[in-house]
Amino acid sequence: MDQPKLERMLRLMKYLSGSVDYGIAELGRKLEMSPRTVYRYLDTFKSAGFAVTKLYGDVYKLGKMPRGTVELDRLIYFSEEEAFLVNSLIDQLVPSNSLKYNLKQKLSAIYRYTGIAEFSGRKNNAALVERLGTAVQDGLQVLLRDYESGHSRSIRDRRIEPFAFTSDYADIWAFDLEDGRNKIFKISRIGDVEVLDAAWEHEAEHRRADTDIFRMSGREPVRIVLSMTLKAKNLLVEEYPMASRFIREDEGSWLLDTEVYALEGAGRFVLGLMDDVRIEEGEALRSYVAEYAKRNFRGPASGL
Q1: pTM here?
Q2: Angle at which helices 283-296 and 263-272 cross, to 10°
Q3: Worst-scoring range by mean pLDDT, 1-10, 44-53, 87-96?
Q4: Phi/psi of residue 24, nearest 5 degrees
Q5: 154-165 and 171-176: which strand pairing?
Q6: Nearest to 174 by CA among 187, 161, 159
Q7: Which of 38, 69, 235, 246 is placed for a possible disulfide with 65 were both Cys, Cβ 3.0 to 4.6 Å?
Q8: Which of the two residues, 271 and 167, has the higher pLDDT score?
Q9: Are 183 and 152 in contact (CB under 8 A)?
Q10: Angle 280-282-172 (CA atoms, 0-180°, nearest 5)?
Q11: Across 148-157, 245-254, 277-286, 288-297, least confident range
Q12: C-alpha–C-alpha distance, residues 239 and 215, integer Å
């Protein structure tokens, strides 16, 4: 069986075992296949021993698996950052290790062919992600119930037009109808998602910005170079695994040479390890750290 066909079959199994009931025609649209093909897959599931139950009309569900069997929604899927970290750990195996190639192939297959609208690495967010994914696909507005805002320090409903997930699938890019701006909303801060029967009104204004290794977004990148001790380098990679792409050793110290889209992420890192990090390049970051230290600390910041 080729990979695209296998992927569609797994996605169909996910839909049939989920909490939402889909008819054959709707499943066909979601999976880009004909209703006849959907029925053929159902027959394949039956032949393989799965309990396929007709609920009503053309709505079918997969029966419960035997006790002790791992449920589909408990399978592990990787974000870009998680995949990069696991891939790095596999790379540490010696070349002669016979498991190395197989592990990398499996990781590649899971990462490349997993759709975010169907799967989520965080089980408690799975339903929210699926509803947001449906809204993105269908071009609909949604109401975020009880959203916890870090900026306004409030918990309230937000009406938005979601249009793209971030690379690690932890956030959703959306046009905020309240203030007319594109923003990132953290899925972990959403109480619930209500998909509204209202189409996008501002699609032409939908824009998403790039994200740096500190998970900060923006449009105009600023280059920074940081000199770090081994301690700082290890702490950086542990918290932000993708930073290792931009680190090199230099005469006993470690240099981070990268671009950032906002100063808060890099500034927080420098301020937290002022005795272990020095700003080599990046006047904007140096000014940001100096001003922050002046407002909040007594004495100079040694990382400057």
Answers
A1: 0.48
A2: 60
A3: 87-96
A4: -60, -45
A5: antiparallel
A6: 161
A7: 69
A8: 271
A9: no
A10: 125
A11: 148-157
A12: 11
